[in-house]
Hints:
CATH class: Alpha Beta
Helix content: 40-55%
Radius of gyration: 19 Å
Order of helices and strands: HHHHEHEHEHEHHEHEHEHH
Distance between the termini: 43 Å
Structural class: alpha/beta
Number of domains: 1
CATH topology: TIM Barrel
Strand order of the largest sheet: 1-2-3-4-5-6-7
Strand content: 5-15%
Oligomer: single chain
CATH superfamily: Aldolase class I
Number of strands: 7
Shape: globular
Amino acid sequence: MTASSTATATPSPLPAALADATRDDASLRRFLHGLPGVDQVGVEQRAAGLATRSIKKAAKLWAIDTAISMVDLTTLEGADTHGKVRALAAKARRPDPERPDTPPVAAVCVYPDLVATAVEALTGTGIGVASVATAFPSGRSSREVKLADVKLAVDAGATEVDMVIDRGAFLEGRYGRVFEEIQAIKAACGPAHLKVILETGELATYDNVRRASWLALLAGGDFIKTSTGKVSPAATLPVTHVMLQAVHDWHAATGELRGVKPAGGIRATKDAIRYLVAVHEVAGEQWLTPKLFRFGASSLLNDLLLQRRTQLDGHYSGPDYVTVD
């Protein structure tokens, strides 16, 4: 096993300790189980403490615009249609048509068979087209099927792929299998960025979240993502703290910047701001960009738009003023 490159930049060679960790299954296991344990009380107290931070009006408007620019506007339902995707793309381009200074979102995320429709609707906008793949959301299929899923999305023009790891293999300690599968998916992505969904709600412990984060980073994931949004609990602040610490430590060890995407259950502007505070305090200010932090929470956008109007107009605008997804 060898660590693969990322789509964001040509990586420098891994430090010897990290390169050695990917040599074989035994080395990978020793490395992952040699990571410092997560202090559950400490991480939860820190997350709760940072969540109490307040910000003033000018900074709040900046935070709202920053959060809007980080949203992956998503539809992942069996009843999705080409018309729904076109409407979502229109909202991605101009989230608030009456406020043209509202920033566009980062990406539109759909199933592979709808990627071409999203690409057509977003050509020339700079907005990414993301696609879930690898037998989303369960990840329960053969590697051949998962790779075919990725190829379908990439051939249709996806610029980002959100894969799910094999949680069963991970929880059984078959880290090499998970590592090699991420590598194979990364290679199939070509120039598309790879987000690796850990489904943290099924990993049970913060230590497992830390191990899965490092495993995904070692295998070449450009982003580590909390959840599919189909399992409860989805994103939580303490789990996101653990993942932000992982990308911070990865950067310290390698010089490479990797991203984090909390997904599922983030619906209110106040919650988005809490996540931005966590990004600043745990990973660092340079992660406050859509290139390195995303929200997988479509309903969040509606509240961000309402709160943005409140900041600009001085009074609350009801939900009738924004489109509801």
